[in-house]
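Can you please make up a whole protein chain along with its backbone structure tokens because I've never seen that pairing?
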Amino acid sequence: MLRGRFLTAMGIALAATLAGCSDPAGSDGRITGEYTLRTVGGFAIPASPAPMHTIHSGSLELRPGGRFAFTLDASVPGEGIGPSRRVATDEGTYTTNGNSISLFYEDVTANAVPVTGVVSGSTLMLAMAFGGTWVFVR
């Protein structure tokens, strides 16, 4: 399971917060489903948003009842020379308010501030501190 160490290494955190995202998400099925990561900061996957960091693939599953699972296949600086490739998964809850979404990781370190974004049709855009806007498509 993905823990704070890996999230910190990838720099995944909030870039901006949206007020009023407190409505429980999920029962209407408008946004539930699996989203595949397509771009990071405007660059197609695989993307290298920083030296020795490559995002090979990612997915975000929004489940009914306000739960999510996030999977990331990425190369990050390793303990030896060069990057180390890892696949990591984390879970948490999400809330929506209109087309705004907030993700709350179960990992306390990663959940210091929620990740926020916007859902529009089959596209989900998240504001990430590492790599700018991440775009997922269902």
